[in-house]
Design goal:
Layout lengths: L2 E7 L6 E7 H7 L12 H8 L3 E3 L5 E4 L6 H12 L3 H5 L15 H4 L4 H16 L26
Antiparallel strand pairs: 1-2, 1-4, 3-4
Length: about 160
Amino acid sequence: MRVIRYKQSEYLLPWKWRKKNPVARFILDIPYALYFSIVPGREALNEVLRTGKAGGGMGTGLSWEPFEITADEYNEIIENWKTLDLRKVTKYRDEDIPDLSFVFDDEILAIPHHLDYLKRSREKYHARFWKKHSSQDGTPPTAVTQHPQPNRRPL
């Protein structure tokens, strides 16, 4: 499996860490590359990999030499993920997310654009990962009603 060299940065830290990992592990480091453990199709994944950067702002940022994965590499990544315990990689506790196994959904795998993949994955699997915050029917919670602020005198 191809090894990817990349730089990882954190908000408010002036330095970057140089890292290298097999491509299957590297993809898991990319912010928002996957919606939890929902596997994207190769086209959607390549859309992210071609950019050479992800994240940043107030969170973790990564930069790498842009590239694409072939169909054979994608199949190798999928085989690797089928045996990977994602909880060990992400360091989630069992009680925080009871089921973090990879999800291979034919509808999701067929989506060619990464943002469409993220949107559909959230629509379809939101309740699976946000059980404590979802309503009974699995839809996202509604906005909280804001209470009017008391009148204040100008300074």
